[in-house]
């Protein structure tokens, strides 16, 4: 059960403020809440079963110390990703205006949006060192609960939660798990792993600063128009 609750909690946090949660909020303003939630559930089940299988295969091929180190690095990366946040572009808001039934529209939208998303990568990372079934079910339920919150906000409240505060809190959790995992792995792998960890952390930080600056510049250009 530990793997189930860990997966549920981590993916729930990863989904907060994520692009797919913004998509859920947008769709919930147009379609029935049950339809949107059902589509999210089916799409997440499909994506995360592949993610857990991939992670399980990696877990059998890599030594435990490397798994701990790489998974920790991944969670630090997710922390920066969460801290930066996602922006739902205007053209993405309008993608659902196609002739599909609401259920299949939501299912397809979420399936495509989740491919390569941080919640998918997080599920892969968790599955490298935890059993398949708890990770699959926990990550799926975590995402559905998080997106269910977005649906509630989109349909009932009609306003967003304070996304920046949520993103910072989620990022802190990711940094805590990530740095702990990296340190645990590096302590047994030796000096090279510590050096590699510092380089990776510096790279993540520089990428975060660059993308944040680029995002601010794009916003200024749009505002000037």
Strand-helix topology:
Blueprint lengths: L1 H14 L3 H10 L4 H29 L2 H21 L5 H4 L8 H13 L3 H10 L4 H26 L5 H27 L1 H34 L1
Helix pairs in contact: 1-7, 1-8, 2-6, 2-8, 3-6, 3-7, 3-8, 4-7, 4-9, 4-10, 7-8, 9-10
Structure notes:
This protein has 225 residues and is an all-alpha fold. 84% of the residues lie in helices and 0% in strands. It has helices spanning 2-15, 19-28, 33-61, 64-84, 90-93, 102-114, 118-127, 132-157, 163-189, 191-224. The longest helix is centred in the C-terminal third of the chain and has 34 residues, at 191-224. The termini are far apart.
Helix proportion range = over 70%
How much strand?
under 5%
**What overall geometry do the principal axes of the alpha carbons give?**
globular
The number of strands is 0
Structural class: mainly alpha
Count of discrete domains = 1
Largest sheet: none
SSE order, as H and E?
Answer: HHHHHHHHHH
> Helical segment tally?
10
Radius of gyration, CA atoms, in whole angstroms: 18 Å
Summarize the structure.
Helix content is 84%, strand content 0%.
Structural descriptors:
10 helices
């Amino acid at each position: 059960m530990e793997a189930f609750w860990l997966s549920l909690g981590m993916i729930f946090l990863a989904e907060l403020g994520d692009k797919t949660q913004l998509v859920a909020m947008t769709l919930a303003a147009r379609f029935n809440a049950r339809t949107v939630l059902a589509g999210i559930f089916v799409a997440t089940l499909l994506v995360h079963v592949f993610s857990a299988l991939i992670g399980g295969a990696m877990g059998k091929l890599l030594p435990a110390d490397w798994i701990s180190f790489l998974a920790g690095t991944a969670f630090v990366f997710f922390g920066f990703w969460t801290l930066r946040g996602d922006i739902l572009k205007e053209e993405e808001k309008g993608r659902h205006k196609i002739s599909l039934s609401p259920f299949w529209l939501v299912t397809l939208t979420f399936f495509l949006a989740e491919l390569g998303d941080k919640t998918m990568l997080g599920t892969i990372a968790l599955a490298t060192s935890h059993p398949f079934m708890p990770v699959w079910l926990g990550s799926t339920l975590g995402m559905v609960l998080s997106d269910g919150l977005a649906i509630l906000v989109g349909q009932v409240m009609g306003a967003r939660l304070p996304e920046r505060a949520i993103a910072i809190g989620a990022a802190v959790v990711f940094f805590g798990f990530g740095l702990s995992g990296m340190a645990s792995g590096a302590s047994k792998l030796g000096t090279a792993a510590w050096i590699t960890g510092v380089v990776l952390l510096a790279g993540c930080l520089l990428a975060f600063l660059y993308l944040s600056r680029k995002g601010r510049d794009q916003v200024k250009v749009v505002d000037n128009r």
